[in-house]
Amino acid sequence: MSKVNIALDIMGGDLGPHVLLDAAKKSLEHYSDLHITLCGHSSVYQSFINTLSGDLKARITLEECDEVVSMSDKPTTALRQKKQSSMRRAIDLVEQRKADACVSSGNTGALMAMAYYVLKTLPGISRPALISWLPKAQGKKVLLLDLGASVNCDAEGLFQYAVMGSVFAKLCAGVESPKVALLNVGEEDIKGNTLVKHADQLLRDSQSVDYIGYVEGDQIFAGKADVVVTDGFTGNIALKSSEGIAKLVIDELKRLTTENFTARLLSKLALPFLKKLYQRMNPDQYNGASLIGLRGIVVKSHGNANSEASFYAIKQAYEEAKNAVPDKIKTKIESVLMEH
Amino acid sequence: MSKVNIALDIMGGDLGPHVLLDAAKKSLEHYSDLHITLCGHSSVYQSFINTLSGDLKARITLEECDEVVSMSDKPTTALRQKKQSSMRRAIDLVEQRKADACVSSGNTGALMAMAYYVLKTLPGISRPALISWLPKAQGKKVLLLDLGASVNCDAEGLFQYAVMGSVFAKLCAGVESPKVALLNVGEEDIKGNTLVKHADQLLRDSQSVDYIGYVEGDQIFAGKADVVVTDGFTGNIALKSSEGIAKLVIDELKRLTTENFTARLLSKLALPFLKKLYQRMNPDQYNGASLIGLRGIVVKSHGNANSEASFYAIKQAYEEAKNAVPDKIKTKIESVLMEH
Fold first, then answer.
1. What is the pLDDT, as a whole number, of residue A268?
2. What single DSSP character describes residue A221?
3. Does B194 touch chain A (CB under 8 A)?
């Protein structure tokens, strides 16, 4: 692939389009073979364009879109009534092969519904999955899926997630043979509900991934697995619970350092360290959950992502395009189906 | 109730019986109306008894048990073959009304299986649930259930958990009208799988608890709910994921403070604050998950609980006995069944 074209929905996100435009600029500076198609109102991006140098300006295309998907739109409403929206247009450009990937920080439910409807799943894949990097001990990272693309899932679906997660880890993190685990309430064979036990059997019977068995919730962030697989209901709750407690720990720490004079003095000294901790635990660099299993690349950025975090989402989309992730998933799934 | 008798399994736990014996001593000193029945090998507790004052000694009974349930015993094996174990005896004493509650830090699966088999569920309750306190913002706490007592659950089961959790919060935390929420992947009505939607309907149709609707994972630790209800599979994973990330944040912080000279100096100054943070986030004071919905009180202490944490597990059992939690759950469930 000589150059990468990313369609960026600049109307989504809680912090306004300027955050996304900043991230677009940074991405263009970072990748000389990147082209970005901005989807949104011209009134929003016109003044921004004028601040860019000639080289960057040459690598930007504008796509005028009249409608915006709001955070309160139901997925079905967005799907039926917002066909001219910036989100929909970004996905359409991928479907029409005019863009290699799209990025949006808008309404997650609407994005998933539209992407599923417009792009369709790859042959052999029943449902798409939302996948993202999470921090792990010793500065490592781990992939968790499904984070909520579908709330009902069968064992075959979990098996497909394992295959897709393995391909993703290999391509986007360069892990030669990614270790894949199933999330469960215990590590022993007898533990778990019917769903997870059946998926375990499918994975044991197959040679398609380096399957290491069950891991418990705490082992997501400490264990040997490069990829942890679960259904969308559990995955979403595991992710959000973890975000909740991490926030609680950091908030408590901040509060402690303001309690008295020594503490306030200490907090001044400690500031660089707190900052470093925050950076290391920072969701920014893990921003960009990818909707995989579709015939095109879709990256969901956090609604409250700042320009730094939004840059990481674009970076994620760029890397998936460079590595032709959907094609590689397709090839792998085909070979797994042959194996059966 | 004039006095409380607690049967303590002193053979469970990873740190050895001395931790539990220390906790027993501390509990007897703390509650003058507490009596403890130590279940285990006499060789283990005999030398301990000799160190106690006459008053404490008078409030201890010894129950010689030849067998021990190991951490590797399968629940079914423990149930069939370890009828003379310290764990089983502690539960039997509750069933025979010789003890008001039992506490064990042994094999969780075996404890749950034995307790379920020996004590049976209360009339109107399909399955027991494991419930525990978790830390929340502003030094508050929240109850989460089920933490893994059963991995398969229907909507009626979730409804019963909500009722039991509400009674538990009222009795053990003095919340007059506990706010109860269902854990889900979104707060909107349309979100969630079939199970959670059906349970939501049952709770909306009933007047039996102060139901506030759905909460997402991060809202467990920040939201308005006093009680958060979910199935045992999701609850276990939410709990363990949270433990995992909290450990990661605190480990990273410790590691940062050893990185260079300033940091090491700072860490000396910061030590009291780190300690305070750790205490505030400390699982010790939240130790003691209760198995509720049975015709008797069963408290599970962490396998690696120290004597401080073990004290909290005994305290939890004491409070449940004082407040006659099973009787109150029974009465409430009966009134709810009348309402239907």
1. 63
2. T
3. yes
A 278-317 residues with CB < 8 A to B: 280-281
Residue B43 to residues B47, B56, B82: CA-CA distances in angstroms?
8, 19, 19
Say if A48 falls within a structural domain. yes
- A333 located within any domain: no
* Residue A87 structural domain: 1-125+293-324
Same-domain pairing of A114 and A141: no
- Give residue-wise pLDDT tens across range A213-234: 999 999 998 889 999 999 999 9
- Residues B173, A186: Cα–Cα separation, whole Å: 30
Size of chain A, expressed as the number of residues it contains: 340
Give the three-class secondary structure for B127: coil
Q: How many domains does chain B have?
A: 2
Residue A165, domain CATH: 3.40.718.10
Q: Note whether B194 and B319 are same-domain residues.
A: no
Looking at per-residue confidence, does B204 or A304 come out higher? B204
Of B152, B192, B262, the CB nearest to A151: B192
Q: Which of residues 52-111 of B touch A (CB under 8 A)?
A: 74, 109
Instruction: Give pLDDT tens digits for B61-106.
Output: 999 999 999 999 999 999 999 999 999 999 999 999 999 999 999 9
CB within 8 Å of chain B, chain A residues 199-258: 216-222, 230, 232-234, 236-253, 256-257
- What is the predicted pLDDT for the residue at B162? 97
User: What pLDDT is recorded for position A44?
Assistant: 87
Question: B144 pairs with which residues across the strands?
Answer: B132, B228
Indicate whether B59 and B102 sit together in one domain. yes
